[in-house]
Amino acid sequence: MNYELIIFYLFASVLVAAAISVVTVRNPVYAALFLILAFFSSSAIWIMLEAEFLGVVLILVYVGAVMVLFLFVIMMLDINIDILREGFIRYLPVGLLVAVAVAAEMIFVLTSDTIKTVVAPARHAADYSNTEALGEILYTDYVYPFEIAAVVLVVAIIAAIVLTHRKRDPSTKSQNISHQVRVKSSDRLRIIKMDAETKTSNKVGE
Hints:
By secondary structure, the chain is an all-alpha fold. It contains ten helices and no strands.
């Protein structure tokens, strides 16, 4: 067993342990942190497979943006995960069945000599750029699907903005920044004049 294989098994073991911890820990903040660890382990494995672009994007996009947003939402909303996990045991047999099926398929793919011969990656030189090759294929052979995906994302952004600015129920409370800026002290403070109260002493015998 060479050094590269040892490093691969190390990252793979950390990835599996972190993925299991994501769905088993009770604290949602811990689950998000374990998911970040799983992303880092996956990124390291992709870099070992000469997919540097995918590894860097996984860290920048998912760890740097998506997971930070998840942690922010979890810590701000204080979600009660115990209610969401009440049916976890009920779906555990189905989850185990799916996990065993996926594991069997992966073992079949990794141990089949025919599939290894077909999908074996070609060796490249030391100065080979995976990012350059991916960009060349993406903007030449798959330029139209790439542009269609971009249009779909733009439409989704526009739809989200339209749904946000749609006409709402007048009884719904919302924050109006312009009204808050134009507010005056007389609108916030009201002085009420009241008669002074005299303190009466109640002594024994009076």
